[in-house]
Amino acid sequence: MNSQTVHQLGPGNVIGLNVRKRTKVRVVSPHGHQVVDTWAFLASSSTEYLSMAHNRTAHYRTRFSVGDVLVSNQFTPLLRFDADTTDGFHDSLHAACSVGSYAFFGEAQHYPNCEDNLRKTLRDHDIDFHITPPPWNLFEKSIVDEEGGLHDRATATKSGDYVELSAERDLLLIFSACRSTIGDISNGEPAGAEIWLEEG
Ligand SMILES: [Zn+2]
Q: 8: CA distance to ligand 1 center in Å?
């Protein structure tokens, strides 16, 4: 990337970014210990968003990879997956952590959760959206076995690994640096992320 804007995202922090079509977005794990819940909303709509279920249907995969164009809940192309320096695990199956999920798993919660982060960011952007789409969980390693069991693994992300995306439409992108340690998804304590933007 040439001239970028870099946004720091501490553990538990969230950021909402309005991006124009063709903007390049790099999501970086500077320390190798961070899962980033990622949402995209079509800027011109309050009902169309990046949907993991529709992408599993579109690509016939539970994990997406470089070259895939990720679609909305109406199969509109939203994001092109341009580069990935990780081992390729970015979970599409888990719901965002929330007040409900922490209570369900019996975990005390002393920090912001990703669902509340999403809700706050949508309110800040005056988007009237009342559900929490299951996010694309960048850097989160989950495995589905032959019996259908879903297993968490510690992320294998290394310091400086990144995913690069480009916008196929004008979008609101939301990134939440997940604080959850259930399943050791961040391979230890979450350590933050960076979001790099470059206008196309
Ligand atoms: Zn979370």
A: 17
